[in-house]
């Protein structure tokens, strides 16, 4: 177990190194830097002034030097300053993380607590009207882009209540939670649909197994067979999807945070990219990548808890 | 086979008929099958793959996958209660409690994610109103009973940590935990090594002797039948074609199908007369089992039968007592009766 974890953590570091090179390179491949953007916006054309800014931010240095400066800072815990606000990057990112994290956690929780039971019901009632209805519901979830769904929900709010919910930092945590329920549903629908489809097919596969017949021959009730014997076996592939969806969620969150005007990291990331705010983008991407690889490690560890045949050996 | 057989009928099956209603027609998997099993008795049901013997067993348990399968006629009287008439919750109380079953594949018949102990205990919790702890303790006792060494340790292990023979023992412990009246063994030794096969059969016989359980043994292995069964039913294409005591059947098979089955067993060293110069060629039964959704009008075995005549192809022969206690369904059972060497 110990050396497995060490191996996995080394692999994580390697992945994060790859991500850092990738995001650094991609950002420099995008035409224009912060100076270009600011000068275009202001309509100023004084090249001396522009060169001064570029020099101050160190953007005239060779790329390798820039990269080394960033990484060595990151390793020391110094994330640098935002180009735009000139505040420390950490102060810009940190307060936004809980908002996005709670939204993501809520979306994922909602998608699991709806997707798994509905998938089981769909499988147990295979080829009934209920199954067809649930399959249409899940297919819709996969087909509807979350921004469009978000807009529909907002239009619904306007239509029925005459107003739309606004995120307010001064609300009580409970009010914030209630506010986030709707965007969480909008962004979690896709994951829920995916989890449901996978649970359904995995359940159908498991319900054909010999040990299910054995359980029935022991006098286990349908509920016991479905949830105690079958679901436990069917859920292993579903957990993989939950891990992958956690990463996908970020994409959905960017749009949802924009539509619902939520000041989370996802929307902030897009703004930072638009402004070529390198320190913000690079460090935020690293944080997201770190979260994703950590979640995947946890998922792999979860397998061995559920399935005794998957024992982690050194 | 020397143990005492009680005269009390435990299970009386009458006219059991299970069809599968598929797109390609009605598959008559079990057609009008009747038999009786007494306490402490072993009844073997033999026949080729697809002759309906497993479906017969699943019909008794009411575990036929439905749709497409349905038991459309017959009675299954267990101690005077017709299982086919019970409501599903009432039937659940019977399964694993009064009538249990062990399956062919010990590799796949146990839930891979639950410990052996928990799977044995589950039956006890369901039917004996035991607490989880008491059931666990009893499960360990049952594992000891089926001669699993280090039962306490094994109870905490998962199926993949046990050998095939051990798993089958665990299955038997599970099936016998509530001391059922009837134990159905569906090819219990087919998937096991020969040495393990003998141990498992011995175990079943021994437990049967202790508990007085009525055993229905489903197999295609006539060696197993000869070793363990008191009485034998031979099935062909969903119907019963012969029934007799094991001894009688092996000495005087009346149905040509049973004759063919016996002829297809390698007899190396069994007959003293077969010397090296005198090779006994293995017989085979020509042709194949007919499709159960397209049975011939007359006797289902007629297309493969060496004795078949016009009458055989025209009408299904009645199932009659040809000799005392020896039943067969054959128009020519007197012709088919050959005493094997």
How does this structure look, described?
The complex is a heterodimer of chains A (314) and B (341). Chain A is an all-alpha fold. Chain A has 13 helices and no strands. Chain A has helices at residues 2-29, 34-42, 47-56, 63-76, 89-93, 97-124, 129-143, 146-161, 173-207, 210-217, 222-259, 265-274, 278-306. Chain A is globular. Chain B is 32% helix and 23% strand. In chain B, the strands form two sheets. In chain B, strands 6-7-8-3-9-10-12-11 form an eight-stranded mixed sheet, sandwiched between helices. In chain B, a hairpin with a 2-residue loop joins strand 9 (231-236) and strand 10 (239-245). The model of chain B is unreliable at 335-341 (pLDDT under 50). The interface between A and B is medium-sized, with 19 and 28 residues.
Number of strand segments of chain A:
0
Q: What is the count of DSSP helices of chain B, taking H or I runs of 4+ residues?
A: 12
The structure class of chain A reads: mainly alpha
Strands ordered across the widest β-sheet of chain B: 6-7-8-3-9-10-12-11
Structural class of chain B: alpha/beta
Biggest interface between protein chains, with counts per chain?
A-B, 19 and 28 residues
Proportion of residues in helical segments of chain B: 25-40%
Order of helices and strands of chain B: EEEHEEHEHHHHEHEHEEHHHEEH
Helix content of chain A: over 70%
What is the terminal-to-terminal distance of chain B? 23 Å
Q: Percent of residues of chain A in beta strands?
A: under 5%
How far the N terminus sits from the C terminus of chain A, by CA atoms, comes to 6 Å
Rg estimate of chain A, integer Å: 24 Å
Shape of chain A: globular
User: Largest sheet of chain A, described in full?
Assistant: none
Overall pLDDT metric of chain A: 85
Largest sheet of chain B: 8 strands, mixed
Order of helices and strands of chain A: HHHHHHHHHHHHH
Oligomeric category: heterodimer
**Low-confidence parts of chain B lasting 5 or more residues at pLDDT below 50?**
335-341
How much strand of chain B?
Answer: 15-25%
């Amino acid at each position: 177990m110990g050396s497995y974890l060490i191996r996995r953590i080394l692999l994580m570091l390697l992945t994060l190194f790859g991500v850092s090179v990738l995001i650094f390179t991609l950002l420099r491949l995008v035409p224009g830097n912060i100076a270009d953007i600011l000068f275009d916006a202001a309509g100023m054309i004084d090249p001396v002034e522009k060169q001064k800014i570029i020099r101050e931010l160190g953007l005239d240095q060779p790329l390798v030097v820039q990269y080394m400066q960033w990484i060595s800072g990151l390793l020391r815990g110094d994330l640098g300053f935002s180009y735009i606000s000139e505040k420390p990057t950490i102060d810009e990112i940190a307060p936004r993380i809980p908002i996005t994290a709670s939204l993501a956690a809520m979306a994922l929780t909602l998608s699991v607590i709806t997707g798994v039971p509905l998938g089981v019901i769909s499988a147990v009632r295979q080829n009934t009207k209920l199954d067809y209805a649930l399959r249409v519901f899940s297919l819709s979830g996969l087909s509807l882009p979350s921004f469009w769904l978000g807009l529909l929900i907002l239009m619904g709010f306007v239509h029925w209540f005459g107003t739309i919910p606004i995120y307010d930092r001064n609300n009580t945590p409970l009010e914030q939670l209630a506010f986030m329920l709707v965007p969480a549903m909008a962004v979690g629908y896709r994951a829920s649909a995916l989890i449901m489809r996978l649970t359904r097919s995995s359940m159908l596969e498991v319900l054909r197994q010999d040990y299910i017949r054995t359980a029935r021959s022991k006098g286990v009730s349908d509920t016991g067979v479905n949830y105690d014997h079958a679901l436990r076996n069917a859920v292993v592939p579903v957990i993989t999807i939950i891990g992958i969806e956690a990463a996908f969620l970020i994409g959905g969150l960017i749009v949802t945070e924009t539509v619902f005007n939520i000041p989370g990291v996802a929307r902030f990331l897009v703004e930072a990219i638009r402004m070529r705010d390198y320190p913000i983008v690079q460090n935020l991407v690293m944080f997201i990548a770190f979260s994703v690889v950590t979640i995947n490690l946890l998922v792999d560890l979860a397998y061995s808890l559920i399935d005794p045949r998957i024992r982690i050996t050194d | 086979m020397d143990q005492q057989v009680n005269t009390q009928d435990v299970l009386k099956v009458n006219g059991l008929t299970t069809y599968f209603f598929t797109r390609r027609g009605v598959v008559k998997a079990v057609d009008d099958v009747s038999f009786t099993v007494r306490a402490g008795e072993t009844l073997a049901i033999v026949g080729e793959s697809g002759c309906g013997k497993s479906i017969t067993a699943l019909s008794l348990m009411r575990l036929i996958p439905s749709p497409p399968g349905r038991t459309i006629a017959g009675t299954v009287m267990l101690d005077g209660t017709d299982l086919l008439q019970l409501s599903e919750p009432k039937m659940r109380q019977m399964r694993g409690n009064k009538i249990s079953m062990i399956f062919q594949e010990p590799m796949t018949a146990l839930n891979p994610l639950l410990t052996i102990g928990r799977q044995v205990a589950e039956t006890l919790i369901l039917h004996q109103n035991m607490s989880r702890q008491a059931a666990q303790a009893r499960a360990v006792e049952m594992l000891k009973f089926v001669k699993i060494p280090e039962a306490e340790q094994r109870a905490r292990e998962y199926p993949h940590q046990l050998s095939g023979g051990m798993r089958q023992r665990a299955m038997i412990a599970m099936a016998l935990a509530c001391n059922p009246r009837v134990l159905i063994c569906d090819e219990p030794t087919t998937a096991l090594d020969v040495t393990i096969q003998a141990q498992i059969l011995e175990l079943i016989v021994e437990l049967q002797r202790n508990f007085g359980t009525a055993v229905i043994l489903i197999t295609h292995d006539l060696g197993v039948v000869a070793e363990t069964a008191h009485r034998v039913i031979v099935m062909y294409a969903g119907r019963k074609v012969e029934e007799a005591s094991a001894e009688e059947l092996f000495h005087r098979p009346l149905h040509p199908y049973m004759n063919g089955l016996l002829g297809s067993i390698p007899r190396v060293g069994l007959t003293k007369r077969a010397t090296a110069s005198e090779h006994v060629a293995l017989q085979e039964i020509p042709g194949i089992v007919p499709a159960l959704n397209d049975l011939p009008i007359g006797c289902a075995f007629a297309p493969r039968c060496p004795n078949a005549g016009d009458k055989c192809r025209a009408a299904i022969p009645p199932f009659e007592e040809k000799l005392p206690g020896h039943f067969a369904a054959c128009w020519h059972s007197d012709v088919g009766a050959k005493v094997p060497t």
